[in-house]
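Researcher: If only I could read backbone structure tokens as easily as an amino acid sequence. Walk me, if you will, through where the backbone shape changes along the chain. I have put the entry right below:
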Amino acid sequence: MVILLSLFLAACSTASVGPAATSPSAQGNAPQSAAAGEAPPTGDANPSAQTGANASSAGQEIVLATTTSTQDSGLLDALLPHFEQSTGIKVKVIAVGTGQAIKLGEDGNADVVLVHSRKAEDEFVSKGFGINAHDVMYNQFYIVGPEQDPAGVKSAKKAAEAFAAIARSQALFISRGDDSGTDKKEKSIWKEAGITPEGDWYLSSGQGMGATLQMADEKGAYTLTDEATFLSRKMNLQVLMQGDQSLLNPYGIIQVKSTAKPAEAEKLIQFFVGAEGQKRIGEFGVDKYGKGLFVPAAQKR
């Protein structure tokens, strides 16, 4: 985590908010499967031509339970076709909040989880539900809101101060309220600020990040968002705070211990943390936004 924090602070010192205010419109966040995309095949991309270990996995399907930010940002659509073409393994994506994704793993309804709440991830492993855990990448959370900034968030130096200013002014705030990694982070910031948010100014969408951003944009409200989903949307909301240490947003990938397809699950994890996956993660978004939406940071836990 010290390494991640150093990289994060270095990245924040040079990052530009530029593209944040001009990105594509939000979509709903119902569980969905990764699209085939237009990823060019690398090497022998025909599953029927695979030999050895790959041949035994060809035609298998595994379930990846993940947070909505990896789906809404387009990251999985950019990565998974390469994995599927090179291994012959199909990946069914269930994109929900982190809490729900972890529950799918606990219930044996997923083979791999890719989420962003370190405390929940560690509990998943310590309770015996997960093995083979890795750090995989990180970005940051943003506090976003209307350009007029009625609560004065821009003048705050810390995320907790920004939230306190929103509560004092009773400016409209949209919470995800879905036990996602973003929702857990939001609740931790309110706790740090010593505030229990309640009242007409505090609304819960009960939906994923894309839908929550859309709601906040339509209402001219504040919200907490992950960097990647925000940058991949076109809206009027502005980034009002970024770079605070408490806004670091690391992602972890974990194999479900009870999976009936451990070899295939391991291959997916190794793709994400291996050289090819890490390279593609770092490159994702650069051509469109001038910066990567995620920072590769693979490390075995």
Summary: The first helix runs from residue 2 to 14. The beta strands are 61-67, 90-96, 112-115, 130-145, 173-175, 202-204, 223-226, 238-241, 248-256, 295-300.
